[in-house]
Structure formats: C-alpha cells, structure tokens
Design goal:
By secondary structure, the protein is of the alpha+beta class. Helix content is 36%, strand content 23%. The strands form two sheets. Strands 1, 2, 3, 4, 5, 6 and 11 form a seven-stranded mixed sheet that branches. Strand 3, helix 1 and strand 4 form a beta-alpha-beta unit. The chain is globular. The two termini are 32 Å apart.
Length: 344
C-alpha cells in the first residue's frame, strides 16, 4: 500500500528527528456494551494532562528500542512490534531508534496501550513525511476495537463521545467533541498496588457478563445527552457532575461481578471517592477497569479543600497516590527537527 507524502524542506536525517507527546484519557463509560441497536459499546471519555506518553524517534544504524526506567514490562516488546508493523506496511525500513521517555501506568485506566501505539505511529509517519490519519494508524496497529475516545483524543483532546466501532471493525466515529472547562479540576486517585483487567482476562470477564439491558443503555444515553454534554457546553457543573456519577453507578453495577462485586477495582479508591462525593459536588467513578478512580470537581481550590478534609477524616489510605490535574483540550503534540532529539 502506498501513502501520500507531505512536502518536506528537511535537508538531513538529523533534522527529521521527531518527538511526540500524547496525553492520557479517562474512560467515563460505555453507552451500550450489548449493542442492542447494532453498534456495541460507544464511549464517553475525557483527555487529561499529567500522564502523557512521550517518545522520540531518530535514524540509527539498526532498529533499537530504549525505554525509560519504570516503563511497563512489555513496553519495549510492544514498540518493537509496532515499529516492525509500520515498516512492513509502508515498505520504509530504514533503521530507527525509538526512545520512550515517559508513559502512564499500564492497565490503570489511562488508555496507555493506545497512546503508545499512536505515538510511535505518528512519529514514524511524521519522520517519513507520510499523510496517515490517526484512525488509519490505529487500524494498522490494532487499536480502537472497543473505544474510539483514545483515537479522537490523540487528535483533538477534550470531552469526547464516540458511536462505537463499525460492524467491520472500523474505528468508532466521533459524535461529539467539547472543550472541557479549564477551571474544572480532575482529581485522580491511584492504587498502584493492583492493576485493572487486560488482554485475555478482560475478554473472559466481558464474555461472562449477562447481556446489558436495553433499558439501562437508554438510561445511560439519557444522562449523556441531557446532563453531561449540555452541562459541559454551558459550564453548568452540577448537572454535569450528577450525570457522570449516575452513569458510573449504572455501568459500575453492571461490571461489578467482574470486579469483585464492586464498581471499584480498588476498595481503597472507592472509599476515598465516595467520601469526596458526599462532601462536595463531584462526578465520581472509575476509568475503565481501573484501578484509577476520578473525581471531577468545580475548581482546584474545591478539590484541595475536599482532599484535605478527607485526609483529616482518615478517608484516604496512605498507600494511595492522589493527583490533581486538568483536562487536555489540545491532543498530541509533535516536535520536528534536531531539537526533538535526545541522546540515548
């Protein structure tokens, strides 16, 4: 398969070094995992700052993968596989060095696998001057088979709603993209002692669940269309937060049998979030299979005050890590040229 090339003014390989900074996302819920109208899943998601995937790509004498300390154990193998796939699909097999500088915790609800794939895909296509849409990169690298918010979030950031993947396996179409209010805070509660379901364990868990009731799917869609999206557009925090919390309860109860009987994979995360939700208006829940939980709050000041009170009340397990961040409304950033290169 041939790919269109972009015009390039680069005069040397060194000037074609590429860096990519790809933001993480929170998965806020599926609309219809059973596909009662013919489309399974469909997803609501939010792109966030603070947990990005950052990598650099440059020429080398052979293909090399270098990963930062603390990266997921399979990160190097994944990058090696993705690079080989891109070279095979494009026929461009000049040797390259890929250096992973940072990545969010794997299997924790941040969409790290999709962002890793899209980051190297965009770095590769930019290096070679290829015009390759993100959806096409995702298809080549086997991403986006359930949720499309990681793909759309890579391009644009923000609060996203997709329509679920097509019957042919094509990536989910983007139905709505809203700039998330900058003053609203995103509180992340991480339990790094455990991980969320992934791979074959995730497939087994999904297959074991009973069919998702159509009435439940209708309720979730009602919350999205009449509370969440209008609330975000009009910056009306309370209906937005109530909608998010309701969706999370509905979806969480459905997935609870695969999570030890709770909507939270981590009981410690659940206790903290439920305490915060009782004290302060907040949209609370768990991203994907967790264990990361979130509380969307009206401001950083409100978040800091609520967390201080939670700690004083003993509602925060000392083993948890809590981060206050904001939404990312930009998407991935690409840097070109010698300045993008870091020595390995």
């Amino acid at each position: 398969m041939s790919f269109p090339r972009q015009s390039s003014e680069h005069s040397s390989d060194a000037e074609r070094c590429v860096s990519v900074d790809s933001p993480a996302r929170l998965h806020l819920g599926f609309l219809d995992p059973n596909g009662s109208l013919g489309r399974r899943f469909a997803s609501l998601g939010l792109v966030i700052d603070g947990f990005s995937t950052r990598l650099e790509l440059r020429p080398d004498v052979r293909n090399r993968i270098v990963v930062a300390d603390g990266a997921a154990p399979d990160a190097a193998a994944r990058l090696e596989r993705y690079l080989a796939t891109l070279q095979r699909e494009t026929g461009l097999d000049a040797p390259l060095c890929v250096r992973l500088l940072a990545a969010p915790p794997a299997h924790a609800g941040f969409g790290s696998g999709t962002q890793l794939a899209l980051a190297i895909g965009r770095a590769f296509s930019s290096f070679h001057g290829l015009e390759m849409p993100t959806r096409h990169l995702a298809a080549i690298l086997g991403r986006g088979r359930r949720s499309g918010v990681g793909i759309a979030g890579f391009d644009r950031g923000g609060l996203l709603l997709d329509g679920g993947p097509g019957a042919d396996g094509s990536a989910a179409p983007l139905l709505s993209r809203i700039t998330f209010p900058a003053e609203w805070a995103v509180v992340l509660v991480l339990d790094e002692r455990i991980g969320g379901l992934c791979g074959s364990a995730e497939r087994v868990a999904m297959d074991a669940l009973s069919p998702f009731p159509r009435a439940l799917a209708a309720d979730v869609c009602h919350q999205v269309l009449m509370r969440v999206l209008p609330g975000a557009i009009e910056q009306a925090f309370e209906p937005f937060a109530e909608g998010i919390s309701t969706i999370q309860r509905l979806i969480g109860d459905y997935f609870a049998p695969a999570q030890g009987g709770s909507m939270y994979t981590s009981a410690a995360v659940g206790r903290t979030l439920e305490w915060l939700g009782r004290r302060e208006p907040a949209g609370i829940g768990q991203s994907s299979w967790g264990p990361t939980g979130f509380a969307l709050m009206r401001s950083r000041a409100a978040a800091e005050a609520a967390l201080a009170a939670a700690r004083a009340a003993g509602a925060v397990d000392p083993a948890l890590r809590i981060v206050i961040t904001t939404a990312n409304n930009r998407g991935a950033q690409v840097g070109l040229g010698a300045a993008a290169l870091a020595r390995v």
